[in-house]
Amino acid sequence: MAFLALGMAAMAQHVTPLSIEIAEVKIDSLRDLYLSEPPMYRASLNIIEEALNRNENEIKTAKAEVKAEQAHAKELSKALEEAVKMTAALKKLYAKEEGELKSMQKVVEKQQKTVARQKDLNKENRDSYLVFLERQQKELGYSLREVADRQHAISGLETTIQNHQTNLQSFVHEIEQKELTLSQLEATLKTRMAQLKAELKTAKSLK
Q: 113-120: long-range contacts at Cβ-Cβ below 8 A with a sequence spacing of 24 or more?
């Protein structure tokens, strides 16, 4: 249980942030600058094309990251589900154990009261039996305190699991936002590539 708690303590997750900036395609500015120099104009367009190709590769890499992050979130979700089941089972087990120990305590208390009333029993036998019963009570007391400690630990683990479920929701939200941003970047890239492709076609006819 302690191992699980330690493992979950390091579970706060975040997506790899995006740092993609789609290259600008400033056709009008380039035309004004290189209108009388077609080779320079074509060279400038080729430079932009290279930048857009790099953007395309960056987006591919980011999409692979998103896929890995989605798979990771799925695994974390499964781990948390199993942890919830485990803590519920242990909680039930400890409650049962506590009940059984308290029942044993009552039995021993009853035996202590019974022997205390047995006035005809000689002192040596009565004292010996009372010592034995007292030892049982001590052992039961130790066991009850141990169960209480385990129950306290389980309560702490439940809180930890709840915190990580909240963290997981934030992680999933980050993934969704990253996906959305990537879709927007991809759309921008597609538009600019089409724009550049059309201009490169025009630039080839310039002399």
A: none
User: Which tokens sit at 65?
Assistant: 């990251």
Pairwise CA distance, residues 155 & 162, whole Å? 11
Nearest to 105 by CA among 78, 75, 134: 134
Residues 6+ apart with CB under 8 A from 129: 115
Q: Which residue has the tokens 């939200």?
A: 173
Q: CA 106 to CA 108: how far, in whole Å?
A: 5
- Quick one: DSSP state of residue 16? P
Which DSSP letter does residue 121 get? S
Helix (H, G, I), strand (E, B) or coil at 99: helix
The burial class, CB within 10 Å (0-12 / 13-18 / 19+), for 96 is exposed
The stretches of the chain forming alpha helices (DSSP H) are: 2-9, 27-34, 38-117, 123-204
Torsion over CA of 150, 155, 156 and 157, rounded to 10 degrees?
Answer: 90
In this predicted structure, the answer to whether residue 206 has a pLDDT above a threshold of 70 is: no
Task: Give the pTM.
Answer: 0.77
DSSP 122: -
Over residues 54-84, the pLDDT tens digits come to 999 999 999 999 999 999 999 999 999 999 9
The rounded distance, in Å, linking the Cα atoms of 172 and 60 is: 20
d(CA 178, CA 62): 9
For residue 4, the tally of other CB atoms under 10 A from its CB is: 16
